[in-house]
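Exercise 7. Given the components listed, write out the predicted structure of the assembled complex. Treat all entries as one system.
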Amino acid sequence: MISLKGVSKSYNQQTKVVDDLNLEINDGELVVLVGESGCGKTTTMKMINRLIEPTSGDIFIDGKNIKSLNKNELRRNIGYVIQNIGLLPHQTIEKNIATVPLLCKKDKGEVKARVHELLDLIELPYDIYASRYPRELSGGQQQRIGVARALANNPDIILMDEPFSALDPITREQLQNELLKLQVELHKTIVFVTHDIDEALKLGDRIAVMADGNILQYDTPENILKHPVNDYVEAFVGTDRLWKTPDMLKAKEVMNKKIIKIGADRPILHAIELMKEHDTNILIVVENASSKSSKMLGILGINRLKGVSNPATKVRDIMKVDVIKIPQDMSLVEVLNIRKENGIQYSPVMDVAGNIIGIITNTSIINVLTDIVPDKEEY
Amino acid sequence: MDLINYVKDNYDLILKLTGQHISLAGIGVLLACAVGIPIGFLIVNHKKLSKVVVNIANIIQTIPSLALFAFAMPLFGIGSPPAIFALFLYALLPIIKNTFIGINNVDPAIIEAARGMGMSKTQIMFKVEVPMAISVIMGGIRIATVTGIGITTIAAMIGAGGLGQLIYQGLSMMNYEMIFTGAISSALLALLADFILGMLEMKLTSKGIVKEETI
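Answer.
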C-alpha cells in the first residue's frame, strides 16, 4: 500500500505544484492520476520514487516512510515507465530489460531466464528480439520493452508516466489492452499518469482527477462519470465520455422523460390530437391517463393510425401490446441489442415498481449523441 | 626522383623526426584529453560556466599558433615543453566542446529513465552518458589530433624538433626535397592518425547508435 500524507511540493514560496495532497493506493490496484498539464499529477507520481522530493508531508510504502530508504534502492524496487520510453539506445533489448536486475547484482543466468520470460510475456520472441537494438523496433514494440524492463526486477509497484501518449492511436489501444491483460495476471500496484480521460476511464480501478496540485475526486470510473463532485470534474470528464463508454450509460439516462399517456378507451381522434399537440408520434396507453401510477397497457405509434377509417375506433383496439419494457438500470449496450434483435423503435422504460418513467426512441438516443456534437466540432 | 633519393639517404633522420613529431602531438592531445574531457563533463550542468569555458577555449584558438609558441617560451624555455604546452592548449577547445556537446545531447528522457531505474550518478555517467556521447567525444579528439599534427610542424621553430625541422631547414637551404619530405610526412601522419582514431571510434561506438550511413 502506498499512502501520501499531506504532501506538498513548491519550487518557490508562491506557487504550490502539489498542495497538501492525501492519497491511498491499495495493493494490486491500478490508480490513474488524471488532469490537465500543470495539475501536479506527474510531480505527485515522481515523489513516490523520489525523483522529486516533497517540500513537506510524508509518503509511506507498506508503512515505511520512503525518506528513510536509500533512493537508488527504492527506485530499483519500483518499476518506472516513461512517455519517451527511454530505452538505452546503445544497449541491446536483452541488456535493456536486464538493467535493474544487473544493477542489483543478480545472478546472470537468472537474469537471462527472466529476460526470456518477460519477452515471452510481451510476445516478442527472445530469439528474434533479444539481440536487437531499440532503434530497430517500432514505437509500440519499444514501449512493450519499456514495460518489460519495468517488470524485470519483479517490483510490487510500477509507476507509469503517460506511457502510451506518444504512440499512434491504434498502437496505444493495443498497449492499453495488453496492460489490462498483464494486470489480471500480475496484480501489480500501478500508478498511471495521463492527461487523457478516456485512457483513465479505460484503465483505472480508481481515478484521481487532479487540478491545481490537489485531488478533486478519487473514485471508480463509474462514479466519476455519474457523480462528478463539481463542475470542473464534470467538464473535464465531459458528457460525451459517457457516450463513449455506453456500457456505463443506463436506460434512464438515455430515455426521453416526456411521455404522453392516453386512456385506453379514448378514440383515435383524440390520439391524433394529442400527438399533434405534443409533437410526438408515440403514446403510452394506460387504463386511466389522469391516474399517476397506472400501468402501461401498450403503446400507440403513429403507424398504427394509418388505414383506420373510423375515427371513433378505440385506442385499445389498435394499440401494440407486446411491448418489451426496459428496466431503468439496463445498460445502453443491452438496450441497443434488444432493439436491434427485435426490430423495436419504441422502448418504454420502467422503474423498479414497474411504472413507465420514459421512453427510448431513436430520437432520444440521437439526442444524447447530439449533445456531444458541438463539443466535437471544436476539435 | 630526387625526393626518393633524399628519403633513402636520410631515412634515419626522417624516422627520428617523425617519432618526435608523434610524441609532441600525442602528448599534447593526451594531456588535452585528460583535462578537457573532465571539464566537458563538469560544465554540462552549469550553463553559465560552460559559456565562460567555451569562450576561453575559443579565444585560445584565435591566437596565431606561431605567437602561442612564442608566448610559451618565457614560461617553459625552449624545446619540447613549450611546444607541448601550446599543442595542449590548441587541442583543448575541440575536446571540451565536443565532450560538452556529446553529453549535453544525450536525450534527457534516457537520463530520466536511468535515474528512475535507480542508477547512481556515476553509473549514469559510465553506463549511459559516456557510451552515448563517445562518437562525438572521439570526433573532438580526431579534430584535435589532425590539427595538432599540423601545428606541430611549427614547433620546430622553438627547437622542439619534429618534421617541421625539415621544412625550416629546407627553406633556409632552398632544399625542396627537404621541404616536401617534411610536409608530405606530416600530412601522411595526420591522415594515418585520423584513420586509426576513426577505427577506434567505430569500435567504441555501440551498433545501436552508429549513424545509419556509416554502418
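Discussion: The radius of gyration of chain B is 20 Å. Chain B has one domain: 2-205.
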